[in-house]
Predict the structure.
Amino acid sequence: MFRFDEDYCLETFRRLLAADSTTGQYEEVEALTAKMLDELGYPYEHTHKGGVIADLGGEGNALVVSAHLDDIGLMVRHINADGTLNVCPVGGLYPFYCMMENVRIHTRDGKIYTGCVCRNPNSIHVTEEELRAVPPDFRTNVCIVLDENVKSAADTRALGIETGDMIALEPRFVYSNGYLKSHFVDDKACVAVLLAAMKELKEKGVKLNRKVYAYFAAYEEIGHGTVWMPDGIKDYLAIDIAPTGPDQNSDERKVSIFCKDSRFPYHWGMTNELRQAAIDAGVDYVMDIFTPHYGTDGDASVVAGYDIRHSAIGPGTANSHGYERTHIDGLKNTFDLLMAYLTK
């Protein structure tokens, strides 16, 4: 009945990746999301802190479906004497996952500079063996080298760069043989799936059997993306990546239904409804548990005190918080399960 528009999903993913959105840096991606909702013809409102909530129609027993717009990244901690930047992580970004990545530095005056994440010392040929063995650490031996002719802290400050400026990694998106490789599959690929579902609902003229909101949240990566929600919410469904690993059931070509994360079990009844919807629709799914370092925006809403049923689904994704990879089949299966649940 419903068709996954692969081209629309991939193009939407590319558009989202082009908007740097390290957690806290929400303006550009918020405006882009609003523009895409205008293109689809959905009414929406902005949250005070940079999220966007679209109204999909329907009445009663309101459901929120969320996917988050923010990315992990870096922030300038201080400027080193040689003009390089000492940085601290925003969200769960570790040095070994971003060494030698190209970055964009966004100043508070709206200037953008480019640079690279480097070790210090940075050349293996002139680094003693004992220093090569030291793990990379943002505090001591990792820095941002600017693509500018700077030799001192004063040179760098003259560019307008200062403590507190945001630093975004270059996504490096590649699509090959059905596999999507990029930084920020978490969670912009899931945002693209949600928008693809909304496009299909609009084009098919589907009238939903309950009230549904699409919540494009900011600040998920640091734990408070959806601590405020509209009135009358009964159910919450997060769409987020399902990390793969040796002890995981998740598969890049399937959709995972989350049973538990590092904080809570997901709601038994709602999770069973999702499982049954997947079975009835012939969706290729697995059940999985994600510990010890995983959570979704649904957790934030529960902790905030909302009396809701919360659950989560998402495509199997490798290398989480690094250079991530998933498959178009995983996105399609996530789309198929979402559509089956929304229209049941």
